[in-house]
């Protein structure tokens, strides 16, 4: 049976579309944005997270690991991931909860079983289910089947996409998707490559083509001082979307809440160049969009 690697099924989500929602976070992403809030989503495979702050160095994880993958080095426990098969024993035996595995394979019926439990909340709040990630459409066969099944159940569906996928994937998802949350980060190609690790040509082209086949698209734009918080970026964005049917524009001010996740993954988080944008900048950008007739929301 078809399976996909999912790292979280988050209930009572209020920021991924209208009403109360359940958001299904898929692993794997074609981009690697420097500010990514879900670094555990980028890898298509499982990840092992270790929180040094919670670890009391009891050594239990090393004792129970069947692969002999964990060693105490100085004041922390180091895992040799080339040996680890993600059996999860160290997670179960770690009493302080310093260890965690991100990523589990699910079938479509397993996801449905989880998300349909909150049907009453969706109905009462005008909510539903959102597919996010990572990039959910990298798992297009699974995503299409899940979206189709949700529509059969009468559930409102949203897809949060980077747009960095073949257009055919967006077409297939569009048949069963009520709302697209479409991320746009930078317009200048060189900067896009520098800060996200990927080209934006396909993303820009896909946005235009998607507006031709779907009429409920919210554009989601992270605003990051030091990266894209400049009038020229907003002007270029306005040029790009001129004449396209964009239902709402969401401006998302940068924050570094996810910094601790990088540490747990053993990765560096270089936020030197990235800062929270001043509120005056956010207000100016909001005005630039509203003056062109767009409905704008901030921080959603
Ligand atoms: S079992 Fe948990 S608390 Fe004990 S050494 Fe391992 S990670 Fe640290
Ligand atoms: S998940 Fe299993 S194999 Fe990997 S480090 Fe933990 S106990 Fe060892």
Sum up the structure in keywords:
about 300 residues, alpha/beta, Alpha-Beta Plaits, 9-stranded mixed β-sheet, two-stranded antiparallel sheet, about 30% helix, about 25% strand, globular, binds iron/sulfur cluster
Architecture blueprint of SSEs:
Layout lengths: L2 E11 L7 E6 L20 E4 L9 H5 L5 E4 L2 E4 L9 H5 L5 E4 L1 E4 H8 L3 H7 L2 E5 L7 H13 L3 E6 L5 H8 L4 E5 L5 H8 L4 H13 L3 E7 L7 H11 L6 E6 L5 H6 L14 H12 L5 E3 L2
Parallel strand pairs: 2-8, 8-9, 9-10, 10-11, 11-12, 12-13
Antiparallel strand pairs: 1-2, 1-7, 3-6, 4-5
Helix pairs in contact: 3-5, 6-8
Question: Overview of this structure, please?
Answer:
By secondary structure, this protein is an alpha/beta fold. The protein has two domains: 3-44 and 104-298, TIM Barrel (Alpha-Beta Barrel); 47-102, Alpha-Beta Plaits (2-Layer Sandwich). The chain has helices at residues 60-64, 89-93, 108-115, 119-125, 140-152, 167-174, 189-196, 201-213, 231-241, 259-264, 279-290; strands spanning 3-13, 21-26, 47-50, 70-73, 76-79, 99-102, 104-107, 128-132, 156-161, 179-183, 217-223, 248-253, 296-298. It has a nine-stranded mixed beta sheet. A two-stranded antiparallel ribbon has the order 3-6. Helix 5 links the parallel strand 8 and strand 9 (156-161). The protein is globular and about 60 Å long. 38% of the residues are buried. It binds iron/sulfur cluster (2 copies). One iron/sulfur cluster (SF4) is lined by residues 65, 67, 69-70, 79, 84-90. The site of one iron/sulfur cluster has 12 residues, from helix 2.
């Amino acid at each position: 049976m078809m399976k996909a690697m999912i790292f979280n099924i988050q209930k009572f989500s209020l920021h991924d579309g209208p009403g109360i929602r359940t958001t299904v976070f898929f692993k794997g992403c074609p981009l690697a944005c420097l500010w990514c809030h879900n670094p555990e989503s980028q890898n298509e495979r499982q990840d092992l997270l270790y929180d040094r702050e919670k670890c009391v160095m009891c050594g239990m994880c090393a004792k129970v690991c069947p692969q002999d993958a964990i060693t105490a080095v100085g004041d922390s426990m180091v895992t040799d991931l080339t040996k680890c098969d993600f059996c999860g024993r160290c997670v179960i035996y770690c009493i302080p909860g310093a260890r965690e595995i991100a990523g589990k394979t699910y079938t479509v019926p397993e996801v449905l079983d989880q998300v349909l439990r909150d049907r009453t909340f969706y109905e009462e709040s005008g909510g539903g289910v959102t597919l996010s990630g990572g990039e959910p459409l990298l798992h297009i066969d699974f995503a299409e089947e899940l979206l189709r099944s949700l529509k059969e159940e009468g559930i409102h569906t949203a897809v949060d996409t980077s747009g960095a996928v073949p257009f055919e994937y967006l077409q297939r998802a569009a048949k069963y998707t009520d709302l697209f949350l479409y991320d746009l980060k930078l317009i200048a190609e060189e900067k896009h490559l520098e800060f996200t690790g990927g080209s934006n040509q396909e993303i820009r082209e896909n946005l235009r083509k998607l507006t031709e086949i779907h009429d409920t698209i919210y554009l989601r734009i992270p605003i990051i001082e030091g990266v894209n918080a400049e009038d020229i970026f907003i002007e270029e964005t306005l040029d790009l979307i001129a004449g396209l049917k964009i239902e709402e524009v969401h401006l998302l001010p940068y924050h570094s809440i996810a910094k601790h996740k990088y540490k747990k993954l053993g990765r560096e988080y270089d936020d030197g160049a990235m800062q929270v944008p001043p509120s005056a900048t956010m207000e100016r950008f909001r005005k630039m969009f509203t003056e062109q007739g767009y409905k704008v929301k901030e921080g959603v």
